[in-house]
Design a protein that fits this description.
Chain lengths: ~200, ~775
């Protein structure tokens, strides 16, 4: 039995929608990283040390975990910064330059939730279109739509995971995020305090 | 810091410019270059537009119509709102046919029949020759139709007599829209003239006045060498440009931007502590008007969408006799500009005292006068349009009725009044800013705020050159100075300054970074955007170089725009990324989220969906289909709509007392508006556009624009698919927003003229030193 052209169109378009949803999600994540540049350009993060280096090769060590914003604050030594030649373009603080790093993965940020939300709309749209097409052409050949439908469900589960697992990352103290949440603390060696938990 | 400059400096010493002079020079050069080329193209448009013959006669000497009839037909077309029903030369609304393609196809069918039908071996060649040969005599200003074309013309007068007369009601127009035989003849003459421009070869060229648009196999209209070559060239230039952009980024990327600077520890001033001036308080009424107009706009939008899904009945109610499609469509596009612009105007008035630190006496009187004038223009023009489309406005009052150019539908009187109103607005801003302008370098932010505001009335005024007495080609050129250059470029630049200023006030970015972003924006937009305006005019009778330059520059526009929109996308996310240690909560959570969505829609709706329809070869088949509507909705609502909502929420946060403010309503509105818009775009407009484009290439443009195609079963499914998204948008997006606007008026906070503070946060100096040992 021949496949109805409408089912074919809808199936094809659903796949396009899913690809667009994934592409937008990826791009949004990328734009978020670019957004960070406004604050951290010239600094590089060293994951194995959990520290940053600045353009003048000074180290910034973790000082504090900000429970409210879910981020770690790193700070350079005040003595190094205060004698640094490029300090005026870097910080006005007398206590050394500070850099932050978000600990929650991207979809937990405010912008991340929005972009994930949009991708979810596209996935939902693909699902509804296929259901409508299937309902309009109840015949065996429409089973072909099962394949993009599986893909839709998989992407839907994947993208909704963050919504299901965690509330918004906006300043509302929420300890139950499944993240490594510690008491707000001010320690000499943030990484020590960190890894110990 | 900012504040010190206003208070401590003596009036005759200006604060030096915060960025290098090179920025100003580059911006000036780019703008001058753009407008020089644009001026040349304007000149060429007057010179090379298709002529309107004084007399059109058939080969046996019988008079068919006069040049006068064409202009009168054009005026009838506009006055009856037919440009908001169908289109000519691809420009207009998309429910009805494109009357250029419609006339051409039907006339060609008639001529073919007269020459022996499609089966005849010679008929096709003779038809092509009839339509391609240029029989316009420059000396006598006489155009000669072949006998067969003359017969076709008379047949089509009858056809359109029936179309606009007895059967117009079932097509979404007012029943018996046009019945006067003279008027029908004039209207048909106008269509005939556009079809003649579309098919007849320019002297000494092998393409028609419109670069051989519309595509029509019967008269051998197909993409010209120019259409192909410039599409390919601009695509290659685009690829090369993007390559160069990436290379430059790889090489200088780190240095190009700005050094990451530490976010300061700040304390946001709770909205209740920010004292408002009388003019700022007046803005509450502006936002109520914004909310109301937005609501009306989506309701008439829903009605016009219903015509596409189900043309003949509105749930059993005969809508076409009260609100015909062309009326709701007119209101829909006019209001889309009105409500967003009103929000921008109000935000300008609201920010001025924050920038200057004080407000001149009686500033709020001017603000209320402007609001009154705006309301008069909006509702007066809407009533005028309704009266004209219903055919009850006497001709002497024509200036109050329907001017009819899509997006410039409002009557001439209202258009002039609106221009005057915009100038009053600039005066309001100038009065408000004067104290600050005096102490600032002319390249600094307060001046940029003023310049970009001044460009708004200046370029809206250019729209006054759009005259129904000129040929369509010339009028359309000036129309796009408003539709593209004003809406898409100058409003964009002004709103960039607004947002950058808000970010400075909220401590998101430093003034220097904000100023750099503004200059970058001006340069990049103007580099491609000014000449890129011509991408609307590929096929409306302008010279081929208009298409060449328009295509090339608007494709090149994509390079800086990609950079800019991605940059803006990241920039606008900055507000949402609150990482400062603040003692008080950030008050603008949902206002900055709207800005995040502006960044997203700017990239997707304006950038991607816009480029999708931009290449001449795509546009050749695509113009006037749902794919254009897709771009228009995602860009207009996505960028300007979300921005207008965000700015409104920002100001309302101060106008509504804290205990009355509802973050929850703002949240619902934000999510619903975005979900609704994404759904509209991806569930309906994009797939419909792709299907229609496919039909246009496969079955011909004529067929793709007929009602039979638009209302076929598959298309109807997609049209009905919109319903859930539209409901979410209206109920969840618009109504809560309207309610917040109402709260602004209902519980408006008190105010005073002084004790203003321009910055909405206070910096906290870090007291306790942090001990850092060695490691």
């Amino acid at each position: 039995m021949a496949l109805h052209p409408e089912a074919l169109i809808v199936g094809g378009y659903a796949v396009i929608l899913l690809v667009v949803a994934a592409a937008l999600d990826w791009l949004a994540q990328h734009s978020q990283q670019r957004s960070e540049r406004f604050r951290t350009a010239g600094f590089s993060y060293l994951p194995q040390h959990d520290a940053w280096t600045c353009s003048e090769d000074a180290m910034l060590w973790p000082m504090e975990y900000d429970e409210l914003h879910h981020l770690v604050r790193y700070r350079a030594k005040a003595s190094v910064c205060n004698s640094c030649l490029v300090k005026p373009s870097c910080t006005s603080s007398a206590n050394g330059r500070e850099v932050t790093r978000a600990v929650a993965p991207w979809p937990h940020s405010e912008a991340g939730r929005f972009h994930r939300g949009i991708s979810m709309v596209l996935v939902g749209c693909a699902a509804v279109l296929q259901l409508v097409a299937a309902a309009r052409h109840l015949e065996p050949s429409t089973l072909v739509l099962g394949l993009p439908m599986l893909f839709t469900i998989w992407l839907g589960i994947r993208y909704s995971a963050h919504f299901r697992a965690a509330p918004a990352n906006f300043p509302e103290p929420t300890p139950a995020t499944g993240l490594r949440v510690t008491q707000t603390s001010r320690t000499r060696w943030g990484s020590d305090a960190w890894e110990g938990k | 810091m900012l504040k010190a400059s206003t208070t401590e400096r003596s009036p005759d010493v200006r604060r030096p410019m915060m960025v290098s002079r090179g920025w100003v020079q580059a911006a000036a050069l780019v703008i001058l270059f753009g407008f020089a080329v644009l001026g040349f193209l304007a000149f060429r448009t007057y010179e090379t537009g298709p002529p309107i013959a004084d007399r059109v006669v058939s080969q046996d000497g019988k008079a068919l119509f006069r040049g006068d009839d064409v202009i009168k037909g054009q005026k009838l077309f506009l006055k009856n709102g037919l440009m908001e029903y169908g289109s000519v030369l691809g420009h207009g609304a998309y429910l009805g046919p494109d009357f250029t393609a419609d006339y051409l196809h039907r006339a060609a069918l008639s001529v073919t029949r007269q020459y022996g039908g499609a089966a005849s071996s010679t008929a096709q060649a003779k038809v092509i020759e009839d339509f391609k040969t240029n029989r316009y005599d420059e000396a006598t200003k006489t155009l000669t139709y072949t006998a067969a074309q003359a017969v076709a013309f008379e047949e089509l007068v009858t056809y359109y007599g029936n179309y606009f007369g007895p059967t117009s009601g079932e097509k979404g127009m007012r029943p018996d829209a046009i019945t006067d035989p003279t008027q029908i003849r004039q209207l048909t003459s106008f269509f005939a003239w556009t079809a003649w421009s579309g098919s007849t070869l320019r002297p000494d060229k092998n393409y028609s006045y419109t670069n051989s648009w519309p595509p029509e196999p019967l008269v051998d209209n197909k993409p010209t060498a120019n259409v192909m070559v410039w599409s390919v060239l601009s695509l290659i230039a685009l690829l090369a440009g993007i390559g160069a952009l990436f290379a430059a980024f790889g090489r200088w990327g780190e240095r190009f931007g700005w050094k990451g600077r530490q976010a300061d520890t700040i304390s946001f001033r709770p909205p209740g502590d920010v004292v408002l001036t009388p003019a700022q308080r007046a803005c509450a009424y502006y936002f109520l008007v914004v909310g109301l107009l937005f609501f009306i706009q989506v309701m008439v939008g829903a009605a016009s969408e219903h015509y596409r899904a189900d043309i003949s009945s509105f749930f059993g109610f005969d809508l076409a006799s009260w609100l015909p499609y062309n009326l709701v469509r007119t209101w829909h596009v006019q209001l889309s500009i009105f409500w967003t612009a009103t929000s921008f105007l109000a935000a300008g008035i609201f920010l001025a005292p924050m920038i200057t630190g004080r407000e001149p006496r009686r500033q709020h009187w001017l603000a209320y006068i402007l609001l009154g004038a705006l309301a008069l223009v909006v509702f007066g023009s809407m009533i005028g349009e309704a009266l004209d489309i219903h055919g009850v406005l006497p001709d002497v009052l024509g200036a109050f009725g329907m001017q009819g150019w899509e997006y410039l539908d409002l009557g001439r009187f209202w258009q002039v009044l609106l221009t005057v109103g915009l100038f009053i607005w600039v005066i309001i801003l100038f009065r408000g800013l004067r104290g600050r302008l005096r102490v600032e370098s002319r390249g600094n932010m307060p001046w940029m705020f003023f310049y970009t505001a001044l460009a708004i009335p200046a370029f809206y005024a250019v729209g006054l050159l759009t005259s129904s007495d000129d040929s369509f080609t010339i009028a359309d050129f000036w129309r796009f100075m408003v539709v593209h250059l004003w809406v898409e470029d100058f409003l964009e630049i002004f709103t960039t300054v607004l947002v950058a200023y808000i970010f400075v006030m909220l401590g998101v970015v430093r003034e220097r970074v904000a100023l750099t972003v503004i200059f970058l924006d001006i340069i990049l937009y103007s580099a491609g955007g000014v000449i890129g305006t011509m991408h609307h005019l590929y096929f409306s009778g302008s010279a081929a170089e208009t298409m060449a330059l328009g295509a090339f520059f608007s494709a090149m526009e994509v390079i800086p725009l990609t950079f800019l929109t991605v940059e803006a996308w990241s920039f606008l996310q900055l507000g949402a990324r609150q990482e400062s240690k603040s003692a008080t909560p950030f008050p603008h959570r949902w206002a900055v989220m709207f800005l995040v969505s502006v960044g997203f829609w700017n990239f997707l709706g304006a950038g991607i969906f816009g480029f999708l329809v931009n290449l001449p070869i795509v546009s050749y088949y695509e113009i006037g289909t749902a794919l254009t509507a897709n771009h228009a909705h995602a860009a207009m609502m996505g960028v300007y709509g979300m921005l207008a909502m965000g700015l409104a929420l920002f100001c309302l946060r101060y106008l509504i007392p804290t205990e009355r403010w509802s973050d929850k309503l703002a949240k619902i509105s934000f999510w619903s508006a975005n979900i609704g818009l994404a759904w509209m775009s991806f569930a309906t407009l994009l797939p419909l556009g792709i299907l229609q484009l496919y039909a246009s290439v496969n079955d011909g443009y004529f067929a793709a624009r007929q009602l039979e195609f638009i209302t076929n079963p598959t298309n109807s499914v997609f049209e009905w698919m919109r319903l859930p998204g539209d409901l979410v948008f209206i109920i969840g997006g618009v109504l809560p927003f309207l309610w917040l606007c109402w709260l602004g008026v209902r519980y408006r906070v008190g105010g005073s003229r002084d004790q203003l503070d321009e910055i909405l946060f206070t910096e906290i100096t870090e007291r306790e030193p942090v001990e850092v040992g060695d490691r």
